[in-house]
Write a structure and sequence with these properties.
- This protein is of the alpha/beta class and about 200 residues long.
- The chain has one domain.
- It has 7 helices and 8 strands.
- Helix 1 crosses helix 3 (about 35-45) and helix 5 (about 105-120) crosses helix 6 (about 135-150).
- It is globular and about 50 Å long.
């Protein structure tokens, strides 16, 4: 689905301040991932192409899914899926969303979910959308560290949405790790069988 990147950029640019940070009585506005995700879903649906082969779904609970149970992926609930429901060959993109205030454990959990859906479940794209005005270089390093700790079957796109009214941008990709070092070389070295 070639238009997904444009839809994501335009949808994030349409998220108003009240959905970016939720106002609360007696305190400063706060980040609430569900509020942001529901508005993101709404904005993406408004831009979704007519007669598109793929469907946008939010938080599909995969518990007790017969195929995903066999694949070890039934305990996950990604924030957004772009897929063809009922058709395992129609898995296009899996998305996770976190605010710039997320914990390291939260980052690791999301990256593990994305890696599982890219690998075992066969999704083509993994997108990690981070939103928040306080996205720092240190926070981005935490994302990179979390990605380096997981064996990634395919790259994960990291999109940063820094302010309401602005589009999120694909800022970096967490890449798959290439085997290196003596152990990896030993595992990939093939020897000819002995003729004795």
């Amino acid at each position: 689905m070639d238009e997904l990147s444009e839809i994501l950029a335009r949808a994030t640019a349409s998220i108003e301040p009240g959905y970016f940070r939720l106002s609360i009585h007696g305190g400063d506005p706060i980040y609430r991932e569900r509020v942001y995700c529901y508005e993101l879903y709404h904005q993406m649906r408004k831009l979704w192409p007519m007669n598109c082969a793929f469907t946008l779904n939010g938080e599909v609970d995969k518990a007790a899914h017969p195929i995903l149970t066999r694949l070890g992926a039934d305990g996950f609930k990604p924030d957004l899926l772009i897929h063809q429901p009922g058709e395992m060959g129609g898995n296009h993109a899996v998305m996770e969303v976190k605010s710039a205030r997320a914990s390291r454990n939260g980052l690791a959990k999301d990256i593990n979910t994305l890696a599982t859906f890219l690998g075992a479940v066969g999704y083509k794209r993994g997108i990690y959308l981070i939103y928040g005005e306080e996205i720092s270089e240190r926070f981005v390093e935490h994302i990179k560290d979390a990605g380096a700790a997981v064996k990634l079957p395919a790259p994960i796109e990291v999109w940063l949405h820094r302010a309401p009214g602005e589009p999120a941008k694909h800022s970096l990709s967490l890449e798959t790790q290439n085997p290196s070092g003596p152990l990896a070389k030993a595992e990939t070295t093939h020897t000819k069988p002995s003729s004795h």
